[in-house]
């Protein structure tokens, strides 16, 4: 039975959604959850019948969003440090955190180590598309601000392995994010990367634009972490803004309200498709052990799905496949 170490107090809303999400996951799958955080806060939230599946590592130190990620190595009593150290020592198989993403990434890279052949681990995230059941895996979305072409080549390889193992896509298409589809578009980094991917990635589609992410033109889109994070945050902002605008217009129009009632099922399906909680967290690909980085505002559903995500990564041996692919 797999063991997952969980930063139980690192998220924006304390331990409640994290503990609730863990219990929701345990209702559907059996694994050992190791909750790292304030024991006094955690223990009262665990129903008696789940206590045999849950261990608690007591600590009250948490790295807040305002703390500097570079200090994470010094904070050995922090919840994320202790959670990652459990994986490093072999007491847990994976780590899930909704805490400080920079601290999680730094500690996972330095304490767990990079997979042989990986220069830079990358954070990947799933984006919804207009295709039915379609998904686009975008990486990197924040781990590496500055990248060389060889880093983006490694992202493409790791992305292909993830989509093949996780979603069963036999030969995922790879796109390179640029400001135009033509191979002459982009900056020097993009042009050099285009040449490298053309040579080394058999399923390389070519350049793609931002809109292609949501069209599902390719299964994978690679970019540096600066550009990827801008895309991610802009997408979240658009989704939230559209939701607010719809509600505002509905309030001022009885006809619109009637339309919403008639199309309730459609809107419910749409909300599910664009809800980040449905996908869980973002895997940090390229480190030796499974690391899932969740949104700070993750709710119960997002945490539950992050647990399932970690379990599937463990079951499919994605880290071993990445090492073998880059060795070749």
Label this structure with key terms.
single chain; 328 residues; alpha/beta; 12 helices; 11 strands; 47% helix; globular
Overview of this structure, please?
- This protein has twelve helices and eleven strands.
- The protein has helices spanning 16-28, 39-43, 79-88, 101-112, 149-167, 188-200, 210-215, 225-252, 254-262, 264-274, 300-316, 318-327, and strands at residues 3-7, 32-37, 54-58, 94-97, 122-128, 135-139, 174-177, 204-208, 220-222, 282-285, 290-293.
- Strands 3-2-1-4-11-10-5-6-9-7-8 form an eleven-stranded mixed β-sheet, sandwiched between helices.
- α6 (188-200) links the parallel β7 and β8.
- α8 packs across α9.
- It is globular and about 60 Å long.
- The two termini are 32 Å apart.
- The model has no long low-confidence stretch (mean pLDDT 89).
């Amino acid at each position: 039975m797999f063991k997952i170490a969980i930063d139980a107090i690192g998220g924006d809303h304390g331990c409640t959604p994290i503990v609730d999400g863990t219990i929701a996951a345990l209702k559907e799958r059996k694994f050992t959850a190791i909750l790292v955080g304030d024991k006094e806060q955690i223990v009262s939230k665990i129903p008696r019948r789940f206590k045999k599946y849950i261990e608690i590592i007591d600590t009250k130190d948490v790295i807040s969003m305002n703390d500097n990620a570079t200090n994470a190595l010094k904070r050995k009593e922090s919840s994320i440090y202790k959670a990652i150290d459990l994986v490093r020592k072999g007491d847990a198989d994976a780590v899930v955190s909704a805490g400080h993403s920079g601290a999680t990434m730094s500690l996972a890279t330095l304490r767990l180590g990079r997979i042989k052949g990986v220069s830079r681990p990358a954070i990947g995230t799933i984006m919804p598309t207009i295709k039915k059941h379609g998904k686009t895996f975008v990486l990197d979305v924040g781990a590496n601000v500055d990248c060389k072409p060889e880093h983006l080549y490694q992202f493409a390889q790791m992305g292909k392995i993830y989509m093949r193992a996780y979603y069963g896509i036999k030969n995922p298409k790879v796109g390179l994010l640029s400001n135009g589809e033509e191979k002459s578009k982009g900056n020097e980094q993009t042009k050099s990367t285009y040449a490298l991917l053309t040579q080394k990635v058999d399923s390389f589609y070519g350049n793609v634009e931002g809109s292609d992410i949501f069209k599902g033109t390719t299964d994978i889109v690679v970019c540096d972490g600066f550009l990827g994070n801008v895309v991610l945050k802009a997408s979240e902002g658009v989704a939230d803004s559209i939701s607010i605008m719809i509600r505002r217009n509905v309030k001022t129009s009885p006809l619109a309200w009637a339309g919403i009632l008639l199309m309730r099922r459609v809107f419910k399906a749409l909300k599910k498709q664009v809800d980040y909680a449905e996908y869980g967290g973002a895997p940090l690909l390229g480190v030796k052990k499974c690391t899932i980085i969740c949104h700070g505002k993750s709710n119960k559903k997002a945490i539950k799905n992050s647990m399932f995500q970690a379990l599937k990564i463990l079951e499919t041996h994605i880290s071993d496949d990445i090492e073998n692919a880059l060795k070749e």
